[in-house]
Amino acid sequence: MDTFIEVFALQAGFAEMAIRGTTMYWVLYALLRISGRRDLGSLGMADMLVLVLVADAAGNAMSGDSYSMGDGIIVVATIVGWSYLLDRLGYYAPPVRRLLEPQRVCLIRSGRVLASGLKREHITRSELMEQLRLKGIANLAEVERAYLESNGEFSVIRAPRASGDGPSTLDDDDRSD
Fold first, then answer.
1. Domain boundaries, the chain
2. From 3.40.50.11190, 3.30.379.10, 3.90.180.10, 3.30.240.20, which CATH number describes the 105-158 domain?
3. How far apart are CA 133 and CA 136, in angstroms?
4. Contacts for 10 with CB less than 8 Å, ≥ 6 apart
5. What string of pLDDT tens digits covers the 177 residues of the chain?
6. CA 95/CA 77 separation, integer angstroms
7. CA 3, 64, 35, 174 torsion: positive or negative?
8. Most buried among 69, 130, 131, 175, using CB within 10 Å?
């Protein structure tokens, strides 16, 4: 029974672990928010490596090299608590949601690519055309609007009665078939 109690005994203290968890949550949140949203939709090998390394570094910083289960539970509960609180605040207070989540960015309007949107999100024309092809779009005339959404996904609103006379989505493809 004493061993069980020792495993859950706090080594660093409740306040220290809550402060560590809160600090790391907000630092990582800010860094991920600044780094852009486009990578959220899909994780490449380099992205996965960064995620694992960040998790390991953050875990060490949050725990303060503590091996106590109690300390770990406090840190995890703090992180989950912040996530829950921000989710609820975003739902009930739209100004908070607008502050915490990026706005969607228009990339195509009436079949014309908006260079300002691509530049803002660091998306190449080839990447945009790839996303359109994945959505079944053969040429730009088929697109009334295309957006990069706040979650990093691309959304497309098809043009009514598209003539198919616009530029092909294959025009700027760097790869050969």
1. 2-100, 105-158
2. 3.30.240.20
3. 5
4. 17, 68, 70, 71, 74
5. 677 777 677 777 788 888 888 888 888 778 777 766 554 445 554 555 566 666 776 676 666 666 666 777 777 788 778 888 888 898 899 898 888 788 899 999 999 999 999 998 889 999 999 999 999 999 999 999 999 988 788 999 998 875 556 666 666 544 433
6. 26
7. negative
8. 131
Contact 73, 79 (CB under 8 A): no
Burial of residue 20 (number of CB atoms within 10 Å: 0-12, 13-18, 19+): buried
What does the angle CA 136 – CA 139 – CA 142 come to, to the nearest 5 degrees? 75
Residue keyed to tokens 């697109």: 143
Residue linked to tokens 């090998």: 45
> Which spans in 44-143 are helix H?
45-63, 69-92, 94-100, 115-121, 125-134
Written as six digits, the tokens of 134 are 């994945």
